[in-house]
Write a structure and sequence with these properties.
Layout: E1 2-3, E2 9-17, E3 26-35, E4 39-47, E5 52-61, E6 66-71, E7 86-94, E8 101-111
Antiparallel strand pairs: 1-2, 2-7, 3-6, 3-8, 4-5, 4-7
Length: 113
């Protein structure tokens, strides 16, 4: 987890999955997050050809849990490295001086042909 200390505060955490086959029929990310203060929470998956994060979902959350459950589209092999690695990032940003952001579920569901 990383965070900033001034202005807008950002906290990020990551999941790395190895041994993923590139011939996917479907790719779904499920995440349940929460925060003690209102923050904007973004779920992203690494897009290897662009060398950058592809946003799956973004929304403001407060004290109640938020469930993200999204299927990714496009060329699914682009989200898996040639070595079989899949990366997921959750980032929470807030202007509040103090906030807690967390999650109690991160699931990646893959289907092969």
């Amino acid at each position: 987890m990383t965070s900033t200390s001034g202005g807008t505060r950002t906290t990020s955490w990551y999941g790395r999955f190895s041994g993923v086959a590139r011939d996917l029929r479907s790719l779904r990310v499920t995440y349940r997050g929460r925060s003690s203060a209102s923050c904007s929470q973004t779920v992203s998956v690494w897009h290897w050809p662009n060398s950058g994060w592809a946003q799956v979902d973004s929304r403001s959350i407060g004290a109640t849990e938020v469930l993200v459950d999204r299927s990714l589209g496009g060329t699914l092999a682009d989200y898996v490295s040639s070595a079989g690695e899949l990366r997921v990032r959750v980032r929470c940003t807030s202007g509040s001086q103090s906030f807690y952001a967390g999650g109690d579920l991160l699931r990646v569901t893959l289907t092969r042909p």
